[in-house]
Amino acid sequence: MMTLMAQSAERLVGRDADLETLAGLIGLSGTAPAGTGRHVLLAGDAGVGKTRILRELRGRAVADGRQTFVGHCLDFGDSAEAYLPFTEIIDNIISALPAVVAQVADAHPALLRMAPVARAFGGADTADQEALDRGNLFAAIHALLERAAEKTPVLIVVEDTHWADQSTRDLLTFLFTRPFVGPVTIVASYRADDLHRRHPLRRQLAEWTRLPSVERFHLGRLSDDDVRLLVAELAGDLGIDVESVVRRAEGNAFFVEELVQAAGTDELPWDLADLLLVRLEQLDATAREVVDTASAAGRDVSDELLHAVAGLDRATLDAGLRQAIERAILVPREDGYYVFRHALLGEAVYDDLLPGERVRLHQRYVEALRGDLTTGSSAGLARHARLAGDHETALAAGIAAGDEAAATGGPDEASQHYQQAIAQLARRASSEDDTQRLVDLVVKASDAMVAAGHADRAGKLAREQRESLPPDAPGLWRAQLMTVEIETSFAYVNDVEVEELAEAAMAKLPEDAPPLVRARLLAAYARVLMIYRRHDDAERAGQEALALAEELGRTGLAAEVATTLAGSWGRPAEPWIEPLRAAVARAAEVGALHPELRARLQLAYALDAVDRLEEAAESFRSAFELSVERGVPWAPYAFDARIAWIGRLYAKGRWDEALALTESYGIPAALSPWLESTRLMIEQDRGADLGEQARRLRPSWKQEVATASESVPVEIKAAGARGDVDGVIEAYDAAVEVLTRTWGQWFGGNARLSAVAVGAISTVIPGLPVGERRQVMAQVDRILAEGTRPADSPKLWGLEGQAWTARLVAEGLRVHWLAGIEPPEQEELVDAWRKTVAAFEAFPHVHELAWSRARLAEVLRAGGDAAGARVLVDQARESAKQLGAEPLLEHLRTLGTTPQRSATGPSGNLTARESEILALVAAGRSNGEIGKQLFISTKTVSVHVSNILAKLGASGRTEAAAIGRRRGLVE
């Protein structure tokens, strides 16, 4: 049997053009100054050669005088370690530039939370500190790269980001969006073929590639000629069937190498996993044991940990390693780690182990890591312990991993670790200590879940645990869990009677409760009291909570209470604007992110309530951008700010920007429908038929009722466009029922919803038989009454509410005119639409202003003011073109006619317009009256009447009416 020594090609084959392109993108060329390039996302299928070309790129960068630092993402599954590749990168920076790291850590203490920095310089005891605001950590890492680049340009390479944890992805977003003053370039690689539709990286890539600083480059497969060259480079003159390799490898460099390496065996399996394992048959027993042991660690393992786990003496281990390295199964890294040459190879080795072998290997890793965790991490220890069946160690390590992730600003990873620990404890919680531990864990997990945007799940978790407590459980435990339920209820719609729950929690809280537990409950209680307008009680509870928080040094909690006390629930907004500004400043000063977001949002609402619209928009924008910058875009108040800012962009006519913010990665399922409804609204205004998609969002109303206020107008307009009056009314009624139940009778937006519904019916009413119109108009009058607030109702909904109220009045008059039932006078109709135009100029809404101008133009043209109508049409058309609002453009093209349901009338001979005019003729209307009602000229009516007489064979109007009644064309 022929033996072929395993090797990789020394020369980079078939990638010269790709390498030149990559080098040019990062500014690594003869004409580009260092650091002038862009960040690059390197995509490619597994095994196509991403690592190989990056190694060549790094070599060029070093030759060009750049510093290069590499970090690898690993497949840890549900035991992800936050910021893993950056831990490796920072470790390397410490080795190369220890003085720089020390200086940055001194200026940015958050850097000490990263494990390599803490080991090198000593981190502060954080046991009694609040979780680190990840924004501070992000800023510290950004500053470190900046300082490193002061010496020479820096190239950062992050490999395999398809395995990146959420915190690493968020950090990359921060680094991509925050410009570097110095020459810092980042290249991140990922497997394109691993990105299935629900992959967490997929949407994030969409955001990254829209950034002007980021370029995506796809590394394609090798050509057949390049594969032949690669085979020759690998095998020389050993007589390999080259064409067989070309056919089977399909341009994948890794497959080529594997096929060449396996060519000397008696059997050549077709399945790649089997093919990979054929390589292992070339190893002796010792080398195979080393490789098996390494596979249980994941893709890479440190020399120290491998030595501790393998149980071999140094010489024997080295012999096994040398053989594995010579066969290109393991590759040594400069940092003392061994890595599988390809992730697929490590996976194949691990999958080939017997179940018992895996368990025993994981048990050995547990023993090694328990003795010296510096060779690994708490997340790794938890994973090994869980797979080894060592539940107590897995529990302790999982909690430690959650604490570490929370401290370094990784809420997603922290919540995963805590939830795994909760599941373990819940299965065995029988002692009082276990139950107290479980309650404390629920509180920790809930905090992490809320920060990650999963407040709904946090609330359900707390409720489930509270309901599972034994009847004689201490009141302290119930009070702690109730506190979490109250806090999460502020962040999403649910069926919790929060006032009743808050009173019950206060009653359960024992007098000797820990001060922090009391402070937190009092803070939540004060907020509930403020919401329910019990201002004096809220003030007392809030002041007590504030004093306790300040005494305990809990600056974040103190900032939260200060925001509550500065609120304006149920009171005039103007006096609370400055206190809210002070609350924003206080939270920002102490780095309390979530209280700052909440204060900014409340400030925006207060400014909006007093019609300081631009200031309100700026506050919404700043809150949203702050949340993205700090890596918590889905946290409470952050998401509300995003929605509000999208609404302002929509109103301003900046639709592309608004749509970009609806395409967001990693959004929690509970929040997605609300964001989706805003996307549907804009795309419908550009001509898409999305009524059915909007209707599919209805089940989500129970989770977030605000979805109804945005999605139902889409349903209503779609129903109107297809001539479905019943569909318009049903959708309107469904939304009013749920919004009234949640927000009260005069919910914000009721005028808008009614105006949209009446406007949709107006597009259908002219095509209805005369006999059906009165029944429809009865429903229209009901909708008008429901949307019009009585004189003694609460203050109108600011400028926005006033604009929609004016629009509702105008739409009501218009539909009566179109129906021919109690039609208004021309002057009244013109005045109503002029007021609507003026109202949407005062409350700037580009699209609605354009539509209002189009409606006013129709009325003016019907009254003979063609010149006035022309000016308005031109203004509306210009806006519609800029927006890409195709339905409005189409309406403007046909201006002068009334909306029609279909192209043919009910007779099959008369058109819909002719049938409509015949009904008015039969009702005794003159040509002038018909023209006025239908917004067309008297001359046009005369032409239609002549056509009707000719088609019916009638000698005059009276005979035409009689024929129409006889044929059922007129009721």
CATH class of the domain at 672-893: Mainly Alpha
The largest β sheet comes out as: 5 strands, parallel
* Helical segment count: 47
Q: Count the beta strands.
A: 8
Shape descriptor: globular
CATH architecture of the domain at 672-893: Alpha Horseshoe
Keywords: ATP-binding, DNA-binding, Nucleotide-binding
Domain HTH luxR-type: 903-968
Protein name: DNA-binding CsgD family transcriptional regulator
InterPro entries: AAA_16, P-loop_NTPase, Sig_transdc_resp-reg_C-effctor, TPR-like_helical_dom_sf, Tscrpt_reg_LuxR_C, WH-like_DNA-bd_sf
Describe this structure in words.
- By secondary structure, this protein is mainly alpha-helical.
- Among the domains are: 34-220, Rossmann fold; 225-268; 280-353, Arc Repressor Mutant, subunit A, CATH 1.10.10; 672-893, Serine Threonine Protein Phosphatase 5, Tetratricopeptide repeat (Alpha Horseshoe); 912-966, Winged helix-like DNA-binding domain superfamily/Winged helix DNA-binding domain (Arc Repressor Mutant, subunit A, Orthogonal Bundle), CATH 1.10.10.10.
- The protein is built from 47 helices and 8 strands.
- The chain has a 5-stranded parallel beta sheet with strand order 2-3-4-1-5, sandwiched between helices.
- Strand 7 (330-332) and strand 8 form a beta hairpin.
- It is globular.
- It starts with 15 loop residues before the first helix and ends in a 5-residue tail after the last helix.
- Residues 1-7, 125-129, 266-270 and 896-908 have low confidence and may be disordered.
- This is DNA-binding CsgD family transcriptional regulator.
- It comes from Nocardioides albus.
- It holds the Pfam family AAA_16.
